[in-house]
Amino acid sequence: MGLNIQIVVDSASPHELADWWAETLQWVVEPQDADFIRSMIEQGYATEDQTRTHRGHLVWKDGAAIRPAQDIDSKDPERRILFQTAPEGKTVKNRVHWDVRLDGRDKDEVRRELEARGASFLWTARQGPHSWHTMADPEGNEFCIS
Question: Do the strands 57-60 and 142-145 form a parallel or antiparallel pair, or are they unpaired?
């Protein structure tokens, strides 16, 4: 039996970063259940200050997740990225990053598109015939495109 994976990214603005990565990866942001959130508040398990409105919807303030569109209805998705709030900002290079495989798209074109949406270009590297761009998302988390 294989295992599923969830990657968790600390973030200053988890909902905005989830939106950015969902668009970048052509994934979707998981919907949150406003009725469930309200019931948790009514029962005393949560408070209003643990929520916020994002894009017109009541959501938990401290987190948002994305996954591939084809997995959106799965109760146990194989791939999921969760963005959660963290009290401190990013200060050093990530020890873990992900590579975005472009499946034949031109990496310079994708680089320009990502920069126009708030990413930063960091450097280009090469190993043998393979080259890639190292980028940072709007909150400074490194990732590579190749």
Answer: unpaired
Whether the model pTM is above 0.70: yes
Q: Which residues are CB-neighbours of 8 under 8 A, at least 6 positions away?
A: 81, 82, 83, 84
Q: Which residues of 66-83 are buried (b: 16+ CB within 10 A; e: fewer)?
A: bbbeeeeeeeebeebbbb
End-to-end CA distance of the chain: 30
Q: What is the pLDDT of residues 42-59, one digit of tens each?
A: 999 999 999 999 999 999
What is the token pair recorded at 117?
Answer: 């949406």
**Cβ atoms 97, 143 nearer than 8 A:** yes
Q: Where in the chain is the domain with CATH 3.10.180.10?
A: 96-146
What kind of fold does domain 96-146 have according to CATH? 2,3-Dihydroxybiphenyl 1,2-Dioxygenase; domain 1 (3.10.180)
